[in-house]
Amino acid sequence: MSRIPADTVATAPDASQETARKLEQKMGKLLNIHAGMAHSPAVIASYEGMSAAIAAHGSFDARTREAIALAVGNQNGCDYCQAAHTLSGRRSGFDDRQILAIRAGEVDFDDKIDTITAVAREAAANTGNVREATWHAALAAGWSAEELAETFAHIATNLFTNYFNHYAGTELDLPAAPELPA
User: Fold this and answer.
1) With the C-alpha atoms ordered 126, 129, 132, 138, is the resulting torsion angle positive or negative?
2) pLDDT by residue (tens digit) across 122-168?
3) Other Cβ atoms within 10 Å of 159 Cβ, number
């Protein structure tokens, strides 16, 4: 059960309503994660600010953004984010086998996706620390230093949502992500 009430657009604090309305329109419904965030104007504004910065200044295509989100969500054991990003990963062009491979850290279909998700996974697991070998593998695969810097914004945004879901106990209102093979 969620620790933080899941507001509707109408029941959210006034300062949260506009952002909640935009998220509801974008997603087709107000997802439980956004409904919980809306309970605090500071939380939903923080999420909106990070998302807006990436939308305005980010250079990654949808596949790269979703790959990073899948890797970070799996690393942090966030069932909600794995479910959400499985759906959006499919929309970005990944098939189910590729999504499972990204989540498991066993990407065998794209060297660039493999190396950028390795950077994201290590950073998420090690309080931002990434081994030199992992960093240099990403550079060798064709990622620029600017893109690796941008990756941090994606990692941080995903950590924010992962941790919020753990903190709030967000109830899953999406189809659960498939279990990883043992």
Assistant:
1) positive
2) 999 999 999 999 999 999 999 999 999 999 999 999 999 999 999 99
3) 20
**Amino acid letter, 116:** I
- Spell out the residues 6+ positions from residue 10 whose beta carbon is closer than 8 angstroms to its own: 17
pTM: 0.96
Q: Where are the beta strands (DSSP E) in the chain?
A: none
- The string of DSSP letters for 37-68 reads HTTSHHHHHHHHHHHHHHHHH----HHHHHHH
Asked if 99 and 89 count as a contact pair (C-beta separation under 8 A), the reply is yes
> 169 is written with which tokens?
């106990």
Phi/psi-derived region of residue 7, left when phi > 0, alpha when psi is between -120 and 50, beta in every other case:
beta
DSSP letter (8 states) at residue 182: -
- Amino acid, res. 93: G
